[in-house]
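Let us walk through a complete example step by step. Step one is to write down the protein sequence. Step two is to encode the small molecule, LTSJ6FE6, as a SMILES string so that its atoms and bonds are unambiguous. Step three, shown after the inputs, is the structure prediction itself.
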Amino acid sequence: MRALKLHELSLADRLADMAVDALIDEADLSPKPALVDRRGNGAHHDLHLGLMHASALSLWPMFKAMAEAAIEFGEVGLPLREALGRIGREGEQAMLVTTNGVNTHRGAIWALGLLTASAALEPRAITLNAARLALLNDRYAPQPMSHGAQVAQRYGARGAREEAQLGFPAVTQRGLPQLHQSRRRNAGEQNARLDALLAIMTELADTCVLYRAGTEGLQAMQHGAQAVLNAGGSATLAGRRSLHALDNQLLALNASPGGAADLLAACLFIDRLDGAL
Ligand SMILES: CC(C)(COP(=O)(O)OP(=O)(O)OC[C@H]1O[C@@H](n2cnc3c(N)ncnc32)[C@H](O[C@H]2O[C@H](COP(=O)(O)OP(=O)(O)OP(=O)(O)O)[C@@H](O)[C@H]2O)[C@@H]1O)[C@@H](O)C(=O)NCCC(=O)NCCS
Ligand SMILES: Nc1ncnc2[nH]cnc12
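Step three: the predicted structure of the complex.
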């Protein structure tokens, strides 16, 4: 019998692998402020690391189907956007069945779904085409009063939809440059990833934080993340002290930066893809 060779996997298979790997790497990364990681549940009573892993794995068929839809339609347009919306909603149901109703990866389905489809179309224009897809209006999308919609109404915050429509500036202008800079400084891979997460947190209007802890929580997240980077980043002793303080502060405010975590996964996905090109 012939052994399966890795390069015989289809493009859609490989993109789905990369998306799930990015989610698992994000979940495992420790110590993340107030988020689920290898140490514990952060500011969450209904999440744990095993659930994050199970949720990530449950999304593999969805990411593959999104990549296949992109290959089939072949261009950015309403037919592809609406196919992705339908596949995303089905993926969300699969996630909820796996987690027994807990929302683990709604934001990641949105961000990584768009990026996976976009990578299948043209890997070198990944954020541009993801933004073009996000700008199209899916006529079949329900309009629930989600947490994101509620804080948009209350604070006028730009949430997950706008972040994608702008081409993921938190990833391209904050996370990825910081990841590369910290690697160049020999911070070590885990510290470089933590620094990338912190860089994303410095400016993001994370609607999870706003919903749970209002503008006080958002400012604590943004200023605290900047303070860690100013202290030298997670690889330094001063940076670690500052990161520990940020963790305690966000826990006290019950402020979990779940949106920033999803965007770190997006950052790791693009980084992996760049390495494979
Ligand atoms: C278009 C959608 C993005 C809908 O977005 P909307 O603004 O309506 O918001 P939400 O439903 O609240 O979900 C958006 C999730 O995106 C993450 N996020 C938050 N801020 C940002 C940001 N600035 N930029 C990017 N991403 C952001 C975040 O996801 C994480 O948080 C989740 C937990 O959040 P929450 O439910 O609020 O949980 P808790 O506070 O913990 O709840 P309680 O315990 O208190 O009950 C977690 O899952 C992380 O993933 C936001 O939650 C899009 O979602 C959409 O339309 N989906 C429908 C399907 C579809 O069309 N898919 C298309 C696929 S291409
Ligand atoms: N590690 C994490 N902890 C809590 N919420 C999240 N949403 C996405 N990743 C998360």
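Step four is interpretation. The chain has a mean pLDDT of 95.
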